[in-house]
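User: Hi! Is it possible to get a structure for several chains at once, not just one? Here's what I have:
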Amino acid sequence: MTDNAALASELRLAVHRLTRTLRNQRPVDGLSLSQLSALVTIWREGPLRAGDVAAREGVKPPSATRVLAALEALGLISRGPDPTDGRQVTLAVTPAGSARIDEDIKARDAWLAQRLSVLGDDDRQLLERAVAVLKQLAEQ
Amino acid sequence: MTDNAALASELRLAVHRLTRTLRNQRPVDGLSLSQLSALVTIWREGPLRAGDVAAREGVKPPSATRVLAALEALGLISRGPDPTDGRQVTLAVTPAGSARIDEDIKARDAWLAQRLSVLGDDDRQLLERAVAVLKQLAEQ
DNA sequence: TATTGTTATACTCTATAACTATA
DNA sequence: TATAGTTATAGAGTATAACAATA
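Assistant: Yes, the chains can be modeled jointly so their relative placement is included. Here is the combined structure:
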């Protein structure tokens, strides 16, 4: 029972398609999905080292380097040396970064929020619970 | 209540991360997510024109062209002219493509199916219902 | 030697714009 | 002119391998 293989296929397909749709909803001049995700992580969890960001985002260090370089070029995060270990760099959200988070999240998610608003309460509650399960599945 | 904006953000994040995880589970020599998705679409819905594949996959024609070229190079689909309109091409799954679907889906989804198998029945049923809602959201 | 981070390179996935061929 | 599809090009997102700097 519970055909896990069939559910896995359907879930993979649904997630793949929703990702495509969400990527298309990127506002003009908005941050990309990965940039926004990394920025929020640094903002929520305080100053982080580059390796910590990579770990929390679930990506390899070179992938993090690229996203962090873009955020720094935009002035949204600042990069400082670690006082006790010269190899490490410490990333923190700047005031400009902090200001961008709210507006970018709003713009980025406006489309999805609108779609959610037309769902019934049942479906919305279903999604709220499903999000927790999806996050759990995403942990490798 | 039901803060649609907050749910949108959480859902976006969860879907983004699960996509990253699933992409990493690509088996050696396995088809990519987009290749497998397109192949299954053609297999399920019979011979399709290139534009139909793009529409069903929710991508633009150039994106479909690339995926279809890869599938054809692998011998998994065949390309024929439309008898009534020389501009169109008709894609069909070959016997080799048909054979690859089962094994590739199994290999691709083995990891996820295993993760699903350790969930409780409640969570599994939750996901089954959530998949339908996610697919609906993905329709632009 | 081991660890942290970056650079170099490559692949997937997708897009827009420009083109070809056919209608 | 309009449509179907391809080619050219670009950018996001990620990886592995090789490197530099520091521990």
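Helices of chain B lie at 4-24, 33-44, 50-57, 61-73, 95-117, 121-138. Chain B has a mean pLDDT of 93.

User: Great, thank you!
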